[in-house]
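Lecture 7 notes: from sequence to structure.

We start with a single chain of 668 residues. Read the sequence below before looking at the structure.
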Amino acid sequence: MPNDRTSSSAPRREQPWLIRTYSGHSSAKASNELYRTNLGRGQTGLSVAFDLPTQTGYDADHPLARGEVGKVGVPIGHLGDMQALFEGIPLGRMNTSMTINATAPWLLALYIAAAERQGVPRRELAGTVQNDIVKEYLSRGTHIFPPSPSLRLTADVIAFACREVPKWNPINVCSYHLQEAGATPVQELAFTLATAIAVIDAVKANDQVPPADLPQVIGRISFFVNAGIRFIAEMCKMRAFTELWDALCRERWHVADEKLRRFRYGVQVNSLGLTEQQPENNVYRILLEMLAVVLSKDARARAVQLPAWNEALGLPRPWDQQWSIRLQQIVAEETDLLDYDDIFAGSPVIAAKVDELKREALAELARIEAMGGAIPAVESGYMKERLVESNARRVAAIESGELTVVGVNRYLDSAPSPLTAGEDAGFLAIDAQAEAAQIANLVAWRQARDATKVAAALGDLRAAAKDCRNIMSPSIACAHAGVTTGEWGAALREAFGEYRAPTGVARSGVSPAGSNSLAELRERVDDLSVRLGRRLTMVVGKPGLDGHSNGAEQIAVRARDCGIAVIYDGIRLTPAQIVDAALKDGAHVVGLSILSGSHVVLVEEVLERLREKGAGHVPVVVGGIIPPEDERRLLDAGVARIYTPKDFDLTRIMGDIVDVVGSRNEAA
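Now the structure, written as tokens:
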């Protein structure tokens, strides 16, 4: 008897989504080896993670890049690095996704130049560049320029790609980090669609695309979303996205072709919910989150990339990434998921939830439109404040037990995990020499290039920025001439300036339900402030280039709710700036938040500068993803307390910090 899969009556099986892993670290050579390994194991598309200096337009030897090179992605300083990254990988046959935003024109220019060096015409290239700057101001923090020139660069990439790289998706409007920053499904829908509207309006306004071609441009826009653990809500969110986008395309931009109105999206499932405690549980979370974006045929992802089980501990190893690839392959190849039409069609429960999400998202979108759109809503701080508030509610719900996280606030008893029992503690440690090697590579590159060609290319880039010419052709010329990432970034910083986005931190009024602990802590803060002779003051600092500010924001909010005077100036500060702020405001404690892996270098510099300024008595507390061996080193260096993702109770952390300051004051 024939198998159901092969029966002539069985529906035609759909092709699976692109299978990706988000990866890159240390160096172009090391990342190339990882890509080729993953492709050999069945990955069908590349998703490139760039390090923070590359994302923010700095060379590896810039002071702000110290400790950050190769940590959260691959460092790309020039065309030679881009060629090494894709050595042996035919770009004409590859679908490459590049998660890059402020420097998106530059990385796309380097990719095109690398392809041309391979003999591949730009018209044959397929892939995606994220190129969504709006969410950087709200959640990820790798913006460089003010919103208006940033949006102009976004529009330049879109106009150029649609004209000269027609298979390329020139923007991935991204809600992923919005959810990581605390967005509810309604906020994720509304803020993302508001961004798409702002982008399309910018493309229309710069007159690079004829009005008749606008539907084709809209058809090239793709989206990148997050899928969290609330399976039904997430799946309904994706159905709402598809229906809202179709309606926007029809009613706002009069796109007649149904194919051009399709909500085409890729997904990375939620990393925020992965736990340091009982990390083996993360495998089940990842699977459930993936099913939310592949089970519903009418709202199925076009590409899926999964985090590894150990991302709350550190950088995944190649085997961990293989495990994530195999999970996708089992769902796509072994199950009958792709054999059937949408299994949720006609469900009244699903339809009601989708309608509710659409109704609330449209109401929020109307509020943003009334402000003038996404850019004014960013500049005023409105969207950022809403995200910080939503995240505060989520954190409070975990603290109170209203929201269960298995292994974190319930079911805590556990045998030691064999997955973390090896010598490497279950994750990949970055080679400590990677930064020095990248700097040496950069110095050699500068010495070997033709300085005259570099100067001429940079001169034309500056002129294009000043004259409002499309930035892409001058950027490609810069790539071929040997210009570096830092030089490209510096040229545009001269033209456009830099921007510090609103922090969104205000007194939240959100506290764990059913507990008097916060009121008791306020009394302790008041008592200590009397003994200190003035209000207990805390500087919260984000040293280096790490833009993941969610933790710092929540610490600042809870500290203010406890009655502590908080100085928080946002992301991307040097250790010197943080120490100067502590001295200027007479801080009683300095709190540092670092998630990029640069904690040892940057924290030790803060401690050293405090001692040099005669403020070595001021306690320093640190939060981040910090491995045990680094924790020991930092405590030995003089850090008073260290908090990692397992420390979820913010009120307890605040109480601990009050104890630290009190004991230091008594000792003094």
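DSSP finds 25 helices and 15 strands in the chain. Keep this in mind for problem set 3.
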